[in-house]
Amino acid sequence: MRPPALAQALVAAAAPTSDYEMVAGDLHEEYLRVLNARGATAADRWYWAQALRSISSLLSYSRSNASMLRRVGTAFTALAVLVAMLAVLMVIDTVFGSSRLPEWLWFFINYTDAVVFGAILALLVPTDGLRVAFYASLFLVLCFVVPAVAGHPGSQAPLAAWIYLLGAIPAMCIGAGAYQAIRCRIDSVN
Amino acid sequence: MAKGEYLGEFEHIVLLTVLRLGDGAYGAMIRMEIERVTGRSPAIGAVHATLERLERKQFVSSWIGEPTAERGGKAKRHFKIEADGVSALKDARQTLERLHAGVSLRNATA
User: 10 Å Cβ neighbour count for A24?
Assistant: First the structure.
């Protein structure tokens, strides 16, 4: 018997890369104990509860002792990924024209772009990709929200544009989390 | 003790548990001991996050063990309490004893 795959992926996405093996091992060990004592359903339920309750704590810490230079490098990498993500959207907009595309397709392109670049960011920042993706997307949103809140005349946009923008946070996190989960799974298989 | 190095409630519980279990305690063992003794069932993520914080404060140290089959081939991170951790526990205990001194809980009402 193995723990639920989706719950394992959730742990892999949220845990700092350096600690994933230990956290997953601890959960696996207790999962087998609950399985032997109370059966498969209780063990699966226990694993899911632990995974869901652990997300915020796992996202809150990192074991990386990165130097200031490395942190600055990570910030520039994140910035470059954000610029590339927006550039792709601008190219698509220029070539096809967003007004000529159906709204659902434009939503799909936007979020796919954010998911893909979230995964690319996690690839480029091997430790804590999900956390970096979250802060990068939050930074992107704030770059637009702050001028709008301050009343800058060039920052007013229709509601749909704000929905696209806010959706970039979960979309980038999903991309980064999925990449991190897949990489952990491949590492554990090897 | 420097400011910011005081023990939070859960840090206190985790550090005491590491001390109870002795050198080599690890995440699942610590989580189960907390559950057995306190009746609280902490999330494993909270235990690991707290242990990392305690390690940063140099109250505990850690090392990585060998992978084992009962853990799906995954390694353990073992912990042991350090001298600063013992001092922090002593300080926390003395602080609580000073606060409790002269206070009767028997007739106290909420």
Answer: 23
CA nearest to B60, candidates B85, B89, B87? B85
> Which residue segment(s) compose the domain that A39 sits in?
5-60
For residues A154 and A160, what is the distance between their CA atoms, to the nearest angstrom? 16
If DSSP codes are grouped into helix, strand and coil, which group holds residue A125?
Answer: coil
CA distance A60 to A114: 23
Name every chain A residue with its beta carbon within 8 A of the beta carbon of B36: none
Q: To which H or E segment does residue B61 belong?
A: strand B60-64
What is the span of the domain harbouring residue B56?
A: 9-99
Tell me, what's the pLDDT at A67?
75
- How close is the nearest chain A Cα to the Cα of B81, in Å? 18
Which residues of chain B lie closer than 8 angstroms to A53, CB-CB?
A: 43, 45-46
Q: What is the ipTM of this complex?
A: 0.88
pLDDT along chain A (190 residues), means of 10: 89 86 94 94 96 91 74 90 93 81 85 94 85 90 85 73 85 92 79
- DSSP, collapsed to helix, strand or coil, labels residue A93 as helix
- CATH number, residue B26: 1.10.10.10
Torsion of CA A73, A74, A79, A80, to 10 degrees: 70
* Secondary structure class of A141 (helix, strand, coil): helix
- Are A92 and A185 found together in one domain? yes
Assess whether pLDDT exceeds 90 at residue B28: yes
What confidence score (pLDDT) does residue B3 get?
47
| Tokens of residue A79, six digits | 């910035």
Q: What is the largest CA-CA distance in chain B?
A: 55
> CB–CB of B14/B54 below 8 Å?
yes
Domain match, A182 and A114 both: yes
